[in-house]
Write a structure and sequence with these properties.
The chain contains 6 helices and 3 strands. The protein has 169 residues and is mainly α. The protein is globular and about 45 Å long.
Length: 169
């Protein structure tokens, strides 16, 4: 989702969300999961501490990782972030619902996957509150508005990406 949103912003010449005097590093990559966060964020640690880090991650983990393993990995990453960037504000961007879940088995129960997604969002908010959260970003994107999703039902349409980026802003 992040790489798609970033591409959409580049097309619209708004890479920094249209915010003056801000430089946004988009570190998302297709299929990214929690286990990749620390290595991605180490690139940032080589430079000066960022003013803010927004984490939008975990949608791919909802399908592929048990809630217990995911909870441990999230806790490790939040601990790492709070120690590595003590002066940086951290925000959590809620995992979005999807019409279809990439990597899910055919015939998977979308409702049970969505229940797990909500639980992961809740766990992230709790962990962020414990460590350093300054903001939780909710998005007005629901499965009730299928036009916000691309044809694959997993990623966002142009309008969905615009709405997603607006809420990040």
């Amino acid at each position: 989702l992040i790489s798609h949103a970033h591409r959409r912003l580049l097309i619209r010449n708004r890479e920094n969300l249209g915010i003056d005097k801000v430089n946004i590093m988009w570190l998302g990559s297709g299929g990214m999961r929690w286990q990749a966060l620390q290595s991605k964020i180490q690139l940032v640690a080589l430079h000066k501490d960022p003013a803010m880090i927004v984490i939008h991650l975990g949608g791919n983990d909802v399908i592929c990782t048990s809630i217990h393993k995911l909870k441990r990995k999230m806790e490790q990453n939040f601990e790492y972030l709070s120690k590595t960037f003590p002066n940086t504000k951290i925000a959590w961007s809620n995992i979005l619902p999807r019409l279809t879940w990439k990597f899910s088995r055919p015939g998977s129960d979308v409702a049970s996957i969505d229940k797990k997604r909500k639980r992961v969002n809740m766990l992230a908010r709790q962990m962020m509150g414990k460590h350093m959260c300054v903001k939780v970003i909710s998005h007005d994107i629901t499965v009730d508005t299928p036009g916000l999703f691309s044809k694959d039902g997993c990623h966002l349409s142009d309008v969905g990406n615009d709405l997603f980026c607006f809420s990040l802003k």
